[in-house]
Amino acid sequence: MIKEKVILTSFTDPLCTWCWGLEPIIRKLETHFGNQLEIRYVMGGMVKDINDVVSQNGRDIESINIEIESHWKDVEKRHEMPVKGDGFKSISLNISSE
User: Fold this and answer.
1) 81 neighbors 21 (Cβ within 8 angstroms)
2) 45-65: pLDDT as tens digits
3) Whole-angstrom Cα distance, residue 70 to residue 37?
4) Is there a contact between 37 and 4 (Cβ–Cβ < 8 Å)?
5) Residue 38: φ, ψ to 5°
């Protein structure tokens, strides 16, 4: 008997803690459907260029990192998926002099 494969497309962003919260659900689907399921990941980003965010808000990058870390801790409590955000320093500016 030939069964058609279901393709699940997950749009995700490595810096989006809500995306991390989806992981247990994806793993349950993989376990339940096995080879009948194919997962395709489409990587995206919520922010095209962090330099734009900093310049628009007139804030320094450290305050943005602190805000992101705080948001991650709040969301972690909601989806109960561990997120290591202590001392979050993932965002940095890449300023080029032209």
Assistant:
1) yes
2) 777 776 776 777 677 778 877
3) 35
4) no
5) -120, 130
